[in-house]
């Protein structure tokens, strides 16, 4: 039964990777047939930059990922490949969240809309306020 479950998991991973590759190629082909701009926004350049950045971050985080064995619930996990893979996904996720937050803040201040600034300042104030409550 365990073998069937493992095979199913591997098939799902392969299907997800194939779907991702297909979506990226399809998007690049659709954007490649156009001028590369939509309403003055360089869509092609943004797509290529985002794809390249994600691949670079994933490769770098895999390369620098730790291979030190982990001890969880009295069991040791020491497979270097899977340790690097888990580090890769953690580092890539954290990087994506940080980049998204910085991009949101930058675009809000660049456009000069006060409502966005107010929202960000209110969020920052609320986060600081929650931190003060936790320390009391």
Q: Could you please describe the fold and organization of this structure?
A:
By secondary structure, the chain is mainly α. The protein has 2 domains: 1-33; 36-135, no CATH class. It is 79% helix and 4% strand. It has 4 helices and 2 strands. The protein has helices at residues 2-32, 43-64, 80-111, 114-135; strands at 70-72, 75-77. It has a two-stranded antiparallel ribbon. Strand 1 (70-72) and strand 2 (75-77) form a beta hairpin. Helix 1 (2-32) packs antiparallel against helix 2 (43-64) and helix 2 (43-64) runs antiparallel to helix 3 (80-111). The longest helix has 32 residues, at 80-111. The chain is flat. 1% of the residues are buried. The mean pLDDT is 81.
Estimated radius of gyration: 21 Å
In the residues, how many domains can be counted?
2
The helix content, as a percent range, equals over 70%
> What class do helices, strands and sheet pairing give?
mainly alpha
Q: How many strands, what sense, and barrel or not for the largest sheet?
A: 2 strands, antiparallel
Helix-strand pattern: HHEEHH
Count of discrete alpha- or pi-helical segments spanning 4 or more residues:
4
Mean pLDDT: 81
> What is the distance, rounded to the nearest whole angstrom, between the alpha carbons of the first and last residues?
51 Å
What is the 3D form?
Answer: flat
**Fraction of residues in β-strands:** under 5%
Poorly predicted regions are: none
The side-by-side strand order for the widest beta sheet comes to 1-2
Count of DSSP E strands? 2
